Amino acid sequence: MVSWKLTKCIFLGSLPVCGYFAGTHLERQRLLDHSKDTQLRNLPALPLFGTVSAASPIAPAQSTQLEANVSRISQIMKYGFPSLDNVRSFDDYVLSYDRRNRVAHWVFEHLTADRVKPNDGVDRSKCEFKPDESIHKFFRSDNSDYKKSGYDRGHLAAAGNHKSHQNHIEQTFYLSNMAPQVGKGFNRDSWNRLEKYVRKLTKVYRNVYCCTGPLYLPRKESDGKNYVKYEVIGANHVAVPTHFYKVVVGETADGNLEMEAYVMPNQVIDNETPLTSFQVPPESIERAAGLLFFDNISRSKISKINGKKS
Length: 310
What we know:
This protein is of the alpha+beta class. The protein is built from eight helices and 14 strands.
């Protein structure tokens, strides 16, 4: 009986050791089999939380580029993520993608006077709207969805905010950064006015952090009940938001923080309507969108909200 128990103990005790050596052998074999494929794939939007095996060699130049991208992302998201759902990182902006609606939950940008300054070497006419192939084909939108829909492919991260490099402005034309917007009277007019205003804030603040996204707000119908209703377009059923928001934080030279928050209906708006008429308490957007903006900042640290002392 003792001999049998001893044999059993030795056998069971050897399993982890055998597993270790077997795993080591398989990992070594995998690296040998894939030694020719050690470079990172150049996807349009590398997931922010993607991993790179420590055993995979990275060329020095590539490693430097990766470090630069990570540094830029941490700079953009300095004051916190509104959510962590399907986050995608580009060279100069970050977004969270809503796979059900085929439109981003939010898009985050960091703007400075130097970054929004026009660059003669950047040509917007070379940019093309294109599907974001980093998103599964089941969930991404396509140019055909917008064709004859009556809606513009409206930028969330504005192309005009990313003129420092050709690659940066081209990346704003991925359809993951687009949402169906009413064209004349909204996207090409009042929404454009708001985008230009945010760029002008870089002359006032050292750093400007801007979060933009869609809203699907309820409306009371004739039966007295509230309903959330929105149109979908194309074969992929891309959602048409009822409203759009922008939440902006400006950082002064002495480190003070000021916030502004806007909501605009996705409809024709009189160009004479002042932008201040679209200002709302940031909490109302957070409740409607299910997001928390700039949650690394205590609201007590924000000296002004919509121009008034908080």
